[in-house]
Amino acid sequence: MTATLGTVLVVEDDESLRRILGHYLRGHGIGAAEAASAEDAAQILEDGLRPELIVLDINLPGDNGWDLLRGSAFANAGRPPVVIASALPVSPKRLAEFGIAGYLPKPFPVETLVATIERLLNPGKDAEDS
Questions:
Q1: Which long-range contacts (CB under 8 A, 24 or more apart) does 101-104 make?
Q2: Which of 51, 83, 104, 116 is least surrounded, with the fewest CB atoms within 10 Å of its CB?
């Protein structure tokens, strides 16, 4: 794949996982920005990044992922779709409350993340291919 699908903001406090995900996404033609905390992610959004999608860990140091979703930086960025990637279970009610586009319980294969992102960024692609 040569065309970039857009930029994804990966918010993950585990540095090695964050770097692996960012590297893997970029290798699949998906732009990736990385943040180690909700506060870092908010600053990146306030600095003008407008990602097409956010991959968000919920259990972060300091503010958690839900705090980011409640904040003005997320709202000002246009409330892009969010895929929750969490080692902790998240109730379907909570996912619906925040309008979450996808949920991946950790650990997950990186191929599943890429497939989820591609599906969300190219919603009509499968129908066009068949």
A1: 101/53
A2: 104
- Relative orientation angle of helices 110-121 and 15-27, to the nearest 10 degrees: 50
* Domain boundaries, position 115: 7-129
2 found inside a domain = no
Instruction: Please report, for residues 26, 81, 82, 112, the alpha-carbon distance to residue 65 in angstroms, rounded to integers and kept in the order given.
Output: 23, 14, 10, 21
The tally of domains found in the chain comes to 1
Q: Where are the alpha helices (DSSP H) in 3-129?
A: 15-27, 38-46, 65-70, 72-76, 92-97, 110-121, 125-129
The answer to whether position 57 is within a domain reads yes
Q: What does pLDDT average to over the chain? A: 91
**Which amino acid is located at 73 in the chain?**
A
- Answer whether 54's CB lies under 8 Å from 70's CB: no
73-100 tens-digit pLDDT = 999 999 999 999 999 999 999 999 999 9
User: Which single residue is written with the structure tokens 């599943």?
Assistant: 112
Domain for residue 96, yes or no? yes
CATH at residue 42: 3.40.50.2300
